[in-house]
Design goal:
single chain, 13 strands, about 400 residues, 2 domains, four-stranded antiparallel sheet, alpha/beta, Aspartate Aminotransferase, domain 2, Aspartate Aminotransferase, domain 1
Amino acid sequence: MTSDAEFAARAAELDRADPLRAHRDLFIGADDPGVVAYLDGNSLGRPLKASAERIGGLVRDAWGSRLIRSWDEGWFDLPLTIGDRLGAAALGAAPGQTVIGDSTTVLLYKLVRGAAALRPGRTEIVIDRDNFPTDRYVVEGVAAELGLTLRWIEAAPRGGVTADDVRAAVSERTAVVVLSHVAYRSGHLLDAPAIAAAVHEADALLLLDLCHSAGAVPVDLDGWGVDLAAGCTYKYLNGGPGSPAFGYVGARHLGAFRQPIWGWMGGDDAFAMAQGFTPARGVRRLISGTPTVLGMAAVQDTVALIEQVGMAAIRAKSVALTGFAVELADAWLLRHGVVLGSPAEAERRGGHVTIDHPAFRDMTQRLWARGVIPDFRPPEGLRLGLSPLSTSFDEVRIGVAAIRDELRGL
């Protein structure tokens, strides 16, 4: 049996050998003594120091000094310029297919409605029961609006949707399949290329939610043949609370794609103020109203860091972090009745690990009081969200040890 001292030495050695260790110092709060283990980067990422400087400068200079002229000096195109950089750095998307703007919910609505319109006469939308509530609610709302039928995939909560599940659910009636690339609860990682192939066998469209993927797991939207995608920027992309989401429409669909919320900045000539709406050429048509310039600011710094480091190195660190968390859980927690709620195999797991126990709901606040910050997801899951650029191996050790100590006290 590995002792506490041996695990401490292991964590220290893993941190010394970590090629990304220096990047922790780029984040605000990494040395905060009040937070000894931040294990919730899959809900809200730490801010970069560069982002604090960027936002301050934006308020002082671009807004405070340049004022309205800043729209002509870059603001107007920010949703597209940041979208292209994000697409290249983290999404496997060629230029002209990704845009920043709106919340994930609004973008999902636009994309689901647009997908349904691309498949006229089809009567079903496919989604899994364990998808994130917003995804399910949006799809239910669209189905109610359009008189479509929902076909539910019943996936194992501790596993996830497989290509066989999708193949059994789709048919000539399917317009669009909506799935999360990484399951928000279990962390299950879809076999996206196989699922895209299964969807396309039925001539349906695949819409991926990338909220728990972007910035933690390599994504290749173009290479996989994904049709549409959306995701948030405040998790592994460290955009800050409420930072705007991103949307992707594959280039092959852009000419015919129509979304239902027509706004002036998504029009062909925004400043013509013309009577009647003509959608912009390209992915700008996914935009509706004025973009949130302040909200987009911080995303640029994480995108720049991903461009520097590369998603392969980020994924390697993520696999190592989650693997260490699973090892610690096996050694310290299973004897207390904890069950691993995520896939044990690294290749089937995203950037977080979920562990299940009936006591975790009440335990979460006690852990927070100790400076150990995971989050809880019903019915009894504690999620350990491990951000590769800002989380240390020793944080993982400290956090899992605190969970063990709380279980011992029950």
